[in-house]
Fold this sequence. Notes:
It is built from 3 helices and no strands. It is an all-alpha fold.
Amino acid sequence: KEMAATENKPVPKYMKFVLGGTAGMMATCVVQPLDLVKTRMQISGEGGSKKAYNNTFHAIKTIAKQEGPFRLYTGLSAGLLRQATYTTARLGIYTSLFEYVTSNDASGRPPSF
């Protein structure tokens, strides 16, 4: 079979916002356990008490064993809400402005900030 010629259709403006927000939310799902561990390690040993964790891997193992593996995702809803609002707007606006500036440049090249 012959392959149909593909057209380069422009991505709708709303989709730039959707893709930006989705990327941020996916990143948050990956990073959330590490962020929780970082925070727990920072507050461990406050006030002169003994540190609860020796290193990052010990913290992950201890939290998962004592509290359950899903506790590593505590606070995920707040992170997702932040990404759904802040990153969606930031990446959507950036992409739209970047394309606007590039299209208005006589050379058609991206701006050299």
